[in-house]
Amino acid sequence: MLLCLDVGNTHILGGLYNEEKLTARFRYATHLIGTADQFGIFLLNILQANNIKRDQIKAAALCSVVPGCDYTIKHTLLQYFGIRCFVLRAGVKTGLNIKTKHPNEVGADIIAGAIGATTAFPDKNIIIVDMGTATTICAVTKKRDYLGCAILPGMRLGMESLRSNTAKLMEVNIENPEAYIGRATRESIQSGLFYGKLGALKELISGMKKEAFGKESVVVVGTGGFAQMFKDNKLFDTILPDLVLQGIMKAYVTSI
Prior knowledge:
Blueprint: E1 2-7, E2 11-18, E3 21-29, H1 36-49, E4 59-64, H2 67-81, E5 85-87, E6 97-98, H3 108-120, E7 125-131, E8 134-140, E9 145-153, H4 155-165, H5 185-213, E10 218-223, E11 238-239, H6 243-255
Parallel strand pairs: 1-4, 4-5, 6-9, 7-10, 10-11
Antiparallel strand pairs: 1-2, 2-3, 7-8, 8-9
Helix pairs in contact: 1-2, 3-6
């Protein structure tokens, strides 16, 4: 089995693959990773909960945007499973053609998402919206050319910025508001967060379609923790929660 880890700023998303089939997934708070022993015990507990033996894990693949965690994860995998880790990063041959000014600056999570999307929709122009700690909107052509992206703060970052930098605005639950016009401060913040993000995404998706693809058809794919909030707003053609994990798995398979 293959263990795939997507290390984000807020969460580590993990997946266990039997050949190319996702058999289990889990999530772990990035700031809790601690020592190699702590993370190793967590992984063993995950395996036990899914009736998977330690020696069934034959390989691991890592996609990380938190460099400070990489050594601990690599050490954990070597110490607890006796395996070295494939690390997805810019420059690794994946079949994706990165056409940006500075290819080495492209994040591993963006690369993984693009690989996952082109695997799910071969020969299609794609816009990928990944809604995590940051929100990224990326354009990939049907020839597997990654053209670039737009990056803006994620919804939780927006809420935390308001809370931290204003005297009277509070933390709120991030959820779909009942109305555009909030009649209490809490409702007003929720409206601004949700509809502000919706408007920004509509504009960016529309602009990218015109700029990159003209009149050609485009598949808009949503992923990331907040994508489901917008499932009823006709923003995405499809939502693929495991898109980055699928990309990590495909990148590993291509590398061997």
